[in-house]
Amino acid sequence: MATSTPVSIPIPSSRPALSWQERVQRFLLRDSTLGYLFLFPALLIVLGLVAYPFVNAVLMTFQEKTAGAPGRFIGLANYRELLANPVFWQTVWNMLVYTGLGVGLKFCIGLSMALVLNQERFCNNLFRSFLLIPWAIPTLISALNWRWIYDDASGLINNVLVRFNLIEETISWLSDPNLAMFSVIAVVVWQGTPFFTMAFLAGLQAIPRELYEAAEIDGASILQQFWYITIARLRPIFITAVMLSTIWTSSGIQFVYILTNGGPADRTQIFPMLSFTYALGGAQRLGMGATVSLFFFPVLVIFIFFLTRRMLRERGEE
Amino acid sequence: MTLSMTTSRRLVKGVGNVLLLLMLLWTAIPFYWMVATSLKPSKEIYGYEATLIPQNPTLANYATILWDTPYMLFLRNSVTVAVASTLLSIIAATLGAYAIARLNFPGRALMARGLVVTYLVPGSLLFIPLFALFSSLRLTDSLTGLTLAYLGADVPFCTWLLLGYFRSVPVELEEAALVDGCNRISALIRIVLPLALPAIVVVIFFSFTRAWNEFLYAHVFTSTNQARTITTGLANFMNEDVFFWGPLMASTIISAILPVAMFLILQRGVVQGLTLGGVKG
Amino acid sequence: MQTRRNILRQAGTAAALVATSPWWLVRRAHAARDKKLIVWSGATLAPQVDKLLKEQFDAYIKQAGIKESEVDYSVLGTGQITPKLIASLEAGNPPDVMRLGSGSVQLYASQGHLLDVTDLFEKVQSVPGGLFPYFLADAMYQGKAYGVPHQVSPWPLITRMDILEAAKVEPPKTWDEFVEVCKKLQKPPKLTGFGPCLGLHNDTDNNVMNMIWCYGGKLVEADNKTVALHSKGTVQAVQLIADMYNKHKIIPKGAISWDNTGNNKAYQSRQVIFVLNPTSIYAHLAESDKELYDVTALLPVPAGPAGAVEEVTIGYYGLFRHNPYPEVAKGLVEYYMKPENLRVVMEEGDGRWGPPYKQMYESDFWKRPAFQHWRPMLERGRQFSHPGTTNPASGEVLATYVIARMMHRVLVENWEAEKAVEEAHKKAVEIYARHAAGG
């Protein structure tokens, strides 16, 4: 139809008009709304309980504080005192060994066990449940039990070794400065491996068998299947498990507290133990305790940031 | 020399069995020591040397726990607190983990990391201000208070663990469902959850046992038996410089069996459910 | 028009405020008390003593006309009391009455948490015979009394008399004799002579200081300011322990990792002949191992060149200030301290502790041969900071294991005794200086 005058005719939109109920529903089901809604309970709980004490703790590191009284501001004095403490550098080294070896061993043994338990086997369920036992025991009690197993005179290990004439003199598992750290790590690994085992096993169980069958048809070897299917699939769980375990291992006090209390000669001294001694052990210097606890906070935050970078990328960038 | 497929498989299987045996032994021996101690009378525990097999096995330690201490009350409290905090944790964590894994919204990565950063403040530092808070809210010496405290400690860990699992579920399945007209919530419930069920069972177990075995808050936040849990009961056997090893181990054995049995039952149920539903488990 | 960013920002702030809102309440909320009396009783070793203390408590409140619903009596495991107390002090609601060690009395008094109980203290002192004078000092802070001593325990040389008698050997009177006796009677690896605590624990500091005194050393001078650790006596004592461990081998290797229960357990497992410990071991044996109980003797500590001095621990009743009903609390402590009430508790404890009243040691109970050395040990027994008094500085020295670390330098890292003592001295100086400066 030809016309010379431009006419402005309202062009109806391509979408039909929405009722307000439908608009609300659209809004609620939008990604961002749902996102905040879903995360809200978690954030509420955690922020409500942790945020304030956390800020409080950071402030305490700049104070000289005892219980029940307001702290006295002393600037960086706590940090300086900590750095001047001869035990400090020993503790840093200990933390690296303790956390590195502890998490590393738990990871390797946990992964191996998960692979083993994923194989078809009679009574697999029973074995899985049995291997969970160390995790089901309070860490304090495990530590006490092992303290006793390691004992020089009445310990299980020494008694067995001597009875079967495998050694002449008892081994001082906890008193020998060269052995103590490894003895403690052994207990950490005993207690914590089930976490890795079960976490990885659950991940393995979610991998569909078809993937392996398809790969085999394509001529992939067992090793290739392992690397490209199993490991690739498990990667997010690896990251999560390692992150959580590193945080827990580096802040856990029970094992060292019971087994050696930091000795012999501070060979097993770790930061949470030092913090406890300052804050609760009788000196009751809460400011120092907070300083020791939070000293490596920035380092750990950076560690978490880089570790989880890939996992938290936007979906499109995968 | 390349092995044939069947030989490779058999080799792997064999190695697997050996490793399993070693692991079982490694787990069992200290556990056996705890069981043996719980069955020994005090004199034998303090005996000259460690006896590998109890010479006069007795159930006296178990009797002490069950009859001389309010163990049943502690058990009831432990169960209440652990079940409540686990349930609430899992719900919050499932929603949160799904949001982080699948939904796009600003601040997503920040919130996710923020959740876990809270762990960098150790419990031994946190409990003091938390106690002050709960004190003024009249939540001390109550199971509600304990549950809340455990929630704060559990939710980040459950969220992140489930996040890992959700990320390993292939996106295509949900996308197909969304294209078909499903909304996010039903995608979560109908597709992701069933696939992640074995993972959820594991997370439930971890969360439950952490609440079950928690020591510090249980002590500091409670003072009367009405709110005390099993772990507080344990402390009564550790006095200054004398420990009552027998009852201590007996109490631990009893309280360790429950979560493991629960896991066994849940696992069986889940596996059966999955095979019946036709999904590989 | 609001941009999405603005909305988010506002929502975020609102959420943060909401989430942290309970915390604002903490400042304002006053935990209103409906209880007239809150007591925390540290669990003793013996359930019958716990029961007795509760019975006396019940009798008191009945006599004072207070209802059961108005009181709160909790029995707490000793390991858990400190974290709980610290949290309660921060929250502003500690208990009314509690048993505290001398270190805690000084610490909390210096922080202003304790109630002045000088009047109560004087009442207790006026009991015929009075108290051992040494115990008074640690309860005093700036001229006022903040604790009422109610239990004392010496740290005797706990000895397997049967082994000595079988070999017809007299109890050693000096440390040199002691070494010889150990070498003669021990049968390693099963039976070792001496079991001091040598781990990074309080008991180590106490055991080692005990021996340091016998050689004339000390932590700090009587002025409580001048640290005097580095002295010939200290070095001699440290060297003695090192020789016992390395040369004479009369100390079990594992003692380096013993905690406070380690030496108890070693003695109870019949693995050592002598230990230095409060009499808790002895009382525990009464019900758990009658045979061992019968052959255990509580002997005075061997003497060094400077004489023989025992370590002594004192327990006090402390009352916290945050209490709207102080008279009720004071009444309870007065009731507990009545000689007839205290006597019953002490006797029920069967040697775990003794009363602070001098006169009580004249009774048949304390005249038993097993307790024959108690009174002289209490007369000359001293606390860790002797000749100084217990104060937060000495408490910190103890709590950070300065002495134990010194021993580890020598025993584990093979330092010269002199060098290790010097280092420990420096650390102690730093601690005392910090406290003197008001830190």
CATH class identity of the largest domain in chain C: Alpha Beta
CATH superfamily of the largest domain in chain C: Periplasmic binding protein-like II
Question: Helical segment tally of chain A?
Answer: 15
**Share of β-strand residues of chain C:** 5-15%
Structural class of chain C: alpha/beta
Q: What's the SSE pattern of chain C?
A: HEHEHEHHHEEEEHHEHHHEHHEEHHHHHH
Helix content of chain A: 55-70%
Kindly give the count of domains of chain A: 1
| Radius of gyration of chain C using CA atoms only | 25 Å
Number of helices in the DSSP assignment of chain C: 19
Q: Which radius of gyration of chain A do the C-alpha atoms yield?
A: 28 Å
Your description of this structure?
The complex is a heterotrimer of chains A (318), B (281) and C (439). Chain A is mainly α and 318 residues long. Chain A has one domain: MetI-like fold (Orthogonal Bundle), CATH 1.10.3720.10. Chain A contains 15 helices and two strands. The mean pLDDT of chain A is 84. Chain B is mainly α and 281 residues long. Chain B has a single domain, classed as MetI-like (MetI-like fold), CATH 1.10.3720.10. Chain B contains twelve helices and two strands. Chain B has a two-stranded antiparallel sheet. Chain B is flat. The C terminus of chain B is likely disordered. With 439 residues, chain C is α/β, with parallel strands linked by helices. Chain C has 19 helices and eleven strands. In chain C, the strands form three sheets. Chain C has a five-stranded mixed sheet. In chain C, strands 8-9-7-10 form a four-stranded mixed sheet, with helices on both faces. Chain C has a two-stranded antiparallel sheet with strand order 4-5. Chain C starts with a helix and ends with a helix. In chain C, 52% of the residues are buried. Chains B and C meet through helix 6, helix 10, strand 1 and strand 2 of B and helix 1, strand 2, helix 3, helix 11 and helix 12 of C.
